[in-house]
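The aim of this short unit is practical: by the end, you should be able to scan a pair of folded records and say something sensible about each. We start with the first protein, listed as its amino acid sequence and then its structure tokens.
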Amino acid sequence: MNNSAVVFGLGTMIAWGFWIVFGDVASNSIDPKTAAFISYATAAVVTGLFVVVTDASLAVTNRGVLFAAVAGVAAAIGVVSTFIGVSVGPTAVVSTIGGMYFVTAALISTVALGQPLSLNKVVGIGLAVAAIVVINQ
């Protein structure tokens, strides 16, 4: 495993932890759908600036654009679901269940992309599900 992957994974974990907590506060201060829009509009601006100031390639393919757009639709559904969820229930419940997105990703990557589903991955998913059950008790 690449150490950079671990570093970026930790960055993702920390950033999404802040995102959901601040999203909770926002969703309890303004309409959660509006809060979701503001969150992702801000994310789009920040990401755009990141692309401009780094050495990111601006070369695109139709396939890349299509899948990036589909990922954006999925992200939009996820952010709206999250922000509404934290406005009607505990952040700990919404975030731990939402954090199970990797189960969906593992299943999709296995079925649609042909990536192997090893025994270790199955056990890891099972342990994560058990952790979520324990956390939400």
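Turning to the second protein, read its sequence before its tokens, just as you did above.
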Amino acid sequence: MVIDEGILESYGAKAISLKKNEVLFLEGSASLNYYQVAEGIIKMNNFSTDGQEFIQGIFKNGESFGEPPLFGGFPYPANADAVVDSVIWKLSKENFIRLLKENFELHLKFCAILSKRLQFKAMMAKEISSYTPEHRVLTLIDYFKKKEDTKDSKTYEVPFTRQQIADMTGLRVETVIRTIKALAAKKELQIIKRKVFRDYAA
């Protein structure tokens, strides 16, 4: 969890509910609030001129999203909508900045979080421009396994649909489906009841 929910409430945050596919904010809209997931899943995305979706990030319980515009003073560079029914903490920009000023350790925590997100974006830009579909898919899976810190688990269940993997790697969903099957044939991945797993056993 980025910020303890008790601290958020003490600075005036409110919990808001979103239905599946409900839009929280649109690309280009003014950045007025800090958001943190209490329950559910939020994705940030853009669409190309031909309607192809590109997922910028997927955020789950305890994770925050959309902060860079609050620091930079620019509009949201992507849309945000609920993947499933979700509950989101909403804190005004003014109170969020005050919270950080009064809690320096949280300020440092956000610096670390934003640095990791920049690393992810740089990594995916390199993957999309330079590597094969198999390499892109495995790199994405390995990144999220490490991010979720499932150290005790030797087998990681990929929490994304084929379409979401496609939207994060710049591939077509048909290519992702073929790639996952090819990686399963090479025993890099497992497919069990349509779910995808990666085995990290030594």
